[in-house]
Design a protein that fits this description.
CATH class of the largest domain: Alpha Beta
CATH superfamily of the largest domain: FAD/NAD(P)-binding domain
Radius of gyration: 21 Å
CATH architecture of the largest domain: 3-Layer(bba) Sandwich
CATH topology of the largest domain: FAD/NAD(P)-binding domain
Number of helices: 11
Number of domains: 2
Bound molecules: 8-demethyl-8-dimethylamino-flavin-adenine-dinucleotide
Distance between the termini: 58 Å
Number of strands: 22
Helix content: 25-40%
Structural class: alpha+beta
Oligomer: single chain
Largest sheet: 7 strands, mixed
Length: 411
């Protein structure tokens, strides 16, 4: 058995683990990232693609956004289709000029691995699975992998909902709050003849459908489907037919390189810390893709945690680490609430077919308020774009109390 020592052991080379590793390494804190997949795999795993204004501002400030800023595209409007109406919401204008950046998650992961391996710190250990996290309530928690053990001072679980870190949490002291929605989303990454210019959400009697832009050649499409459906239930001709029915007008779609069903569920684990084990990103919370918040929240967690760990290592101040969970949870629940509210707007209540006409008209009324400049539209816009009334905190920023951000309830 090989033994290594480090200050911070990080499980998972997704956006959360890689942002954290870059920030700590640059500041001279020793850390090791352990990732069960190969580098090739994580650099080509298509998932999210919309980055919030405040997240990009923080990555830029920390010198982690060079390629994103060079190659990403800014988007500032989305459209809702309902009952033959197309309501455009100019959330860029409504939020004082803030926009999303469209940049595929796998590109950001590739960039973050490049900066880490290019000198910021030791490269992640790829194709290495953490089997267990042990001794988290001692001063020397350990990552146990096949043939190697890494002794750490702190362990950060950035390993998603099914990773090893959550298994190390005692059930008596931690609660997982979950919601399972009564539908799933088929998701299709498809080649298109022209780039999508904005996100489109369609509210339709057959179910929700959506388009999220990715690159000039690819868009991600979503189709509400029955809970438990699999990709086999959705042959290409059915996908085409339903996209056309729910989303027309459609760009020309050439092929479906990637089709799978997303189980629509959300969860939050509380608290985010046990002893010297801390959780960040999807290991701490899972969001549906409705509001495009998952990757953004993962990065914001990592930035907050880097700040807290740096305070611990630079100044010997443990206060920010102790406060990490309590400070992040309100932000996490705020994002959950936004995503949940958007889902309620986008889906008709189940099993009330006779009611569909009424429900659709209620939704159209709500959507029209979002498109009309005013406090409701502004609140939506600030929440949606992640306006950064309070930006994710820099590792060097002074400790500040969590304050309310702009925006309130909509519609
Ligand atoms: P990740 O990216 O899942 O990374 C976790 C990493 O941990 C590794 N791992 C282990 N490594 C070692 N030992 C173990 N025992 C391990 N167990 C797991 C895994 O291999 C993996 O590499 O988590 P992180 O960093 O928290 O980032 C979260 C985001 O990836 C996630 O929230 C988003 O992708 C969610 N999401 C979206 N978020 C957005 O903000 N905007 C979007 O538009 C958006 N679209 C999406 C999405 C997620 C999707 N899927 C497939 C889940 C669209 C899709 C289709």
């Amino acid at each position: 058995m090989r033994r290594l020592r480090t200050q911070v052991g990080i499980i998972g080379a997704g956006p959360a683990g890689l942002v954290l590793a870059n920030l700590l390494s640059r500041a001279g804190v020793a850390c090791r990232v352990v990732e069960r997949q190969s580098r090739e795999h994580v650099e080509h795993r298509p998932r999210a693609g919309l980055l919030e204004h405040r997240v990009v501002a923080a990555l830029r400030r920390d010198g982690l956004a060079d390629r994103l800023l060079a190659d990403g595209v800014r988007h500032g409007w989305c459209a809702f289709r309902c009952l033959g109406r197309d309501v455009r919401v100019d959330y860029g204008a409504l939020s004082g000029g803030r926009r999303h950046w469209v940049y595929p998650q796998q590109f950001l992961v590739r960039d973050l691995i490049a900066t880490l391996t290019g000198g910021a710190g030791p490269p992640p250990m790829f194709s290495k699975t953490v089997r267990a996290v042990e001794d988290v309530t001692t001063h020397r928690p350990r990552l146990v992998c096949d043939g190697i053990e890494i002794e750490c001072e702190y362990v950060v679980g950035c390993d998603g909902f099914r990773g090893a870190s959550r298994a190390a949490l005692p059930a008596v002291r931690h609660r997982v709050f979950r919601r399972r929605y009564p539908y799933d989303w088929l998701t299709v990454l498809a080649e298109v003849d022209r780039p999508a210019e904005g996100v489109v959400y369609a509210v339709h009697p057959d179910g929700f459908a959506g388009i999220m832009p990715r690159t000039s050649r690819l868009s991600r499409f979503y189709l509400q489907c029955a809970p438990g459906d699999t990709a086999d239930d959705w042959p290409a001709h059915r996908i085409h037919e339903q996209l056309r029915a729910r989303l027309a007008p459609l760009p020309d779609i050439a092929g479906f390189p990637d089709v799978h069903v997303l189980r629509m569920r959300s969860s939050v684990t509380e608290p985010l810390r046990h002893g010297r084990l801390l959780l960040a990103g999807d290991a701490a919370h899972v969001l549906t893709p409705s509001g495009a918040k998952g990757m953004n929240l993962a990065i914001a967690d990592a930035i907050a945690l880097a700040g807290a760990l740096l305070r611990r290592y630079r100044d010997g101040d443990r206060g920010a680490l102790d406060a990490y969970s309590a400070r992040r949870l309100p932000q996490i629940w705020r994002a959950q609430e936004f995503s949940d509210r958007l889902l309620r707007l986008l889906h008709l209540p189940p099993g009330k077919d006779g009611d569909a006409g009424f429900s659709l008209r209620l939704r159209l009324a709500a959507i029209e308020r979002l498109g009309r400049p005013g406090p409701h539209a502004a609140a939506f816009a600030h929440d949606y774009v992640g306006s950064g009334a309070r930006e994710p905190e820099s590792p060097d920023a002074p400790h500040a109390a969590e304050g309310p951000t702009e925006g309130s309830a909509w519609p």
